[in-house]
Model the fold of this input.
Amino acid sequence: MNKTKLRTQYKALRKNLSEVEIEEMSLAIANGVLALDIWDTTYFHVFLPIEEQKEVNTEFLLHLLSGKDKEIVISKSDFTTRKMTHFLLTDNTKIKKNEYNIPEPVDGIEVPSSKIQVVFLPLLAFDTKGNRVGYGKGFYDQFLAECLPETIKIGLSFFEAENAITDVFEKDIRLDFCITPKNCYRF
Done:
């Protein structure tokens, strides 16, 4: 299936999820992350969910990372350049929703992309080869292209893998893992 159809299908599926389902599945996803061999790294990039889009609630993941004394990095998006600026999440970080309801840091200690070792990615769908479908703006492809090649890319999804995404582009960056409430996919 192509990206446009997948976006429509998975937005509809997410729209039907209840708050209780989102919480339970998000907790299962965070527990799935525990099984990954990623804990010898320090800098973890985590997205803050757009609640209105019923994205995976990363609060459980944030608690997990914090409990393991990891450096947590969050981003601010510039919709003009489609670039993301990354900031260390600290006790003093002020979060504010932007015009697209994306929770973002107001300011803080900037972290270069090259320092980030693990990236958790929001997505709408993914396939058995690690290709992913997001909202189609290219923010994460641009960000991941700035990261080191060994940066670990982990998708978080409420739903299982599609067989294939038919319109993958050369510049699309594949996932290394995708965690769902029931499975851990390794690519």
User: Anything to note?
Assistant: The chain has one domain: 3-186. The CA atoms of residues 131 and 174 lie 5 Å apart. The domain at 3-186 is CATH 3.40.50.10420 (Rossmann fold).
